[in-house]
């Protein structure tokens, strides 16, 4: 008898009362129909609407092995996903959303693609996104902001399957994660994609507002790239060159034309250079603050409740 492939499915949930029951019913049907040996890890990201209590009440309806984790507060989808990955122990791990915009049946296709391509990570990419116009525009802006020679998240989605070696990067994760895919892509030797269906939400609206997506993009640029530091160096060099040229000009005027150096030019130069220094020190200070918080263990993720069946 052929051994069934084992896979853990990580599903971060947040304010999901309107979709949770339908999600469980769909997972029940899928788990009974397919040949995979699956376990689901639900990670409640500090919901305050009774989502975790509803999950507990639905335990008798769940027909597959699962683990339910509740975080002490809302840390964000990527941190909740990282916590779920740290609890995975199967050879393969899938990640999907809680709103049924991802079809669990596509996990089989993603897994087949992963094995056939001998890849470490496969993303389910959408031919047509069913988000709202504002969400789609914000997502496009995020990918534009974060794209560079070393970073390209144009194909990244929240629906993916990976080998355990990639998920193991979060085995000891205790700190909040800004963008989980940065770590996944770093640990994946080969990455591939597969087109999947992106369905409309069955209820409610996405918790990701346009402002949250822009903040996510800025967080990726600031804390997962050296772009701000490089920008400071280049800006400082440019301003130093400009100030040098202006200084030479004023010295020339003073020596050869006997022009009185103006008070206005002096004040403008002082304010401008001071503003540049303050801006640079502010960004550098933000890096130092993050390092200090991490070293002091002030940003640990707290799991307030955990049970399984």
Search tags:
single chain; 309 residues; Spore Coat Polysaccharide Biosynthesis Protein SpsA, Chain A; 2 domains; elongated
How would you concisely characterize the structure shown here?
The chain is α/β, with parallel strands linked by helices.
Explained architecture:
The protein has 309 residues and is an alpha/beta fold. It has two domains: 6-225, Spore Coat Polysaccharide Biosynthesis Protein SpsA, Chain A (Alpha-Beta Complex); 227-295. 47% of the residues lie in helices and 16% in strands. The chain is built from ten helices and eight strands. The chain has helices spanning 20-33, 51-57, 77-86, 106-116, 133-146, 164-167, 180-187, 210-223, 227-256, 263-295; strands at 6-13, 37-44, 66-71, 92-95, 121-126, 160-163, 191-196, 303-308. An eight-stranded mixed β-sheet has the order 7-5-6-4-1-2-3-8, with helices on both faces. Helix 5 (133-146) runs parallel beside helix 8 (210-223) and helix 9 runs antiparallel to helix 10. The longest helix has 33 residues, at 263-295. The chain is elongated and about 90 Å long. It starts with 5 loop residues before the first strand and ends with a strand. The mean pLDDT is 79.
